[in-house]
Amino acid sequence: MTRTLIVTAVLLLAACGKPDGPRTVESVEALVADPHRLSELRAACRADRARLGDAQCHAVAEATRQRFMRRAPSPYADDPIQPGSAP
Description:
By secondary structure, the chain is mainly alpha-helical.
């Protein structure tokens, strides 16, 4: 009788702490290519970083940095006021 209770208690305790499985982390390259998903994940990291995980939030931060620092035409390239022509 006591052995059955002990085995049952051990089985119940072993089943309680199981994780949901490994979290898949979206790659930085995929996030750079999809700005809508990147903005969703940025908001989710701000709201609940523990739920998303540090690895995903680090990937989101790196993708944000890469999008900001990428070599692309500057929005200021066609500025109508030239640097030397200011009054």
